[in-house]
Task: structure prediction
Amino acid sequence: MKLGFVSAILPDKTFEEMMDIASDLGYECVEVACWPKGKAERRYAGVTHIDVDELSEEKIASILAYSRNKKVEISSLAYYPNPMDGNLEGRRLSISHLLKVIDASAKLGINMVTTFIGRDQTKTVEENLLLFQELWPPILRHAEQAGVRIAIENCPMLFGKDQWPGGQNLFTTPRIWREVLKLADTDILGINYDPSHMIWQQIDYLAPLYEFKDRIFHVHFKDIKLYPDKLKEVGVMAYPLDYMSPKLPGYGDVDWGAYVSALHDIGYDGYACIEVEDRAFESSEKKILDSLKISKRYMEQFVI
Result:
């Protein structure tokens, strides 16, 4: 496995500055944020380390040369919107930009995009599966023609009241993965596997690795800490952030030895990117850099 991080934690850095940090800290890869330039609609969104709207041949050559010189690979181009948004204009903009990110990934020779399926949060799972059949086939055909694989992160995007009810990403559980992958009927759609989201949903995060081993295209290393005393007070129907919080690897409830061992069992040797969303490490640039150092040092127990 190649150890990296998700670049969204460095929102104010240029591509080159972000790659310098990755290189200086000894990371092997980065998952590069490719949102449209502009204001972020939520935390960790709106970060643009590669602007796919300004991707000239000269810029492509510059990005690839910088990556080679720093000995840091680009694991994927990352864009996590809601392509099935109930707001039709938001849906249109998300899909339009996602297609550009797919094209950019092909042009750069990365051939991987990490993203969300999306969800109309006012509709049922069954209704959203029908919406997936309507909206995603053209996206998948576009990716197939470009030779790009799409790895869907299993984050429910259900944390607070603005994402309630339902959340903003359908691709949340093994049962739904089976349905979506069957409906998609293509080898280019797979999983960006993040065990942390399964912790608070009370889902086994090890067994699905074996079932879906051929569909795991990319993995995240992020932790979640559950607070049992808070859960007893509010119950599972509360906003999830009322009883859990994202943490650095090793600071939460994921058994990382067991998780990485299972990845080795299934022969996964791809990209593994640390995703920092720990509020305890967001107050300064020093804290952010510390989070990347601490996470790398911890995960190197398991990934060399």
User: Anything to note?
Assistant: The chain is about 40% helix and 15% strand.
